[in-house]
Amino acid sequence: MQNTQFDLITFNLVLEHVRDLRFVFAQAASRLAKGGMIHISELHPFKQYMGSKARFESDQGLRELEAFTHHVSDFTSALSDAGFKFLEIKEWFDSDRNEVPRLLTIVATAESML
Q1: Which domain holds residue 55?
Q2: Number of compact structural domains in the chain
Q3: What is the C-alpha to C-alpha distance for residues 25 and 76, in angstroms, rounded to an integer?
Q4: Which residues contact 87 (CB under 8 A, 6 or more apart)?
């Protein structure tokens, strides 16, 4: 499994719970096959600035998970440092584009894999 290469690595609503994006993206880049891509879909930082966090109901009541605010530049810098080339960066809104975006998505490929 150690030398297994992947065509796609995806992160969905998980990176806000990871402190060190640089380590995660460097690991992802090292495991991508030639032409492999990374897809990220995360809570938009603007939502976090407004206090939004992952939370769920449990037997003990409402629980909030530990979260780290990553600015858009944190994502782009860490991906660039890991050798990724951006193919697409998008913001997704609930319904009104005049409101704060809900999600940030990034699609990239490792430059060294092209």
Answers
A1: 6-113
A2: 1
A3: 10
A4: 37, 107, 108, 109
Distance in angstroms (rounded) separating the CA atoms of residues 83 and 79: 6
Q: Which two tokens stand for residue 84?
A: 């990724």
pLDDT in tens, the chain (114 residues): 567 899 999 999 999 999 999 999 999 999 999 889 999 999 999 999 998 887 778 888 888 888 999 999 999 999 999 999 999 999 999 999 999 999 999 999 987 544
What radius of gyration, in Å, describes the C-alpha atoms of the chain? 15
**Strand-strand pairing, 55-58 and 61-64:** antiparallel
Q: Give pTM, 2 decimals.
A: 0.87
**CATH code assigned at 49:** 3.40.50.150
In a domain, 1, yes or no: no
- Taking Cα atoms as reference points, which of 76, 66, 84, 89 lies closest to residue 21? 76
Quote the tokens at residue 78.
């860490």
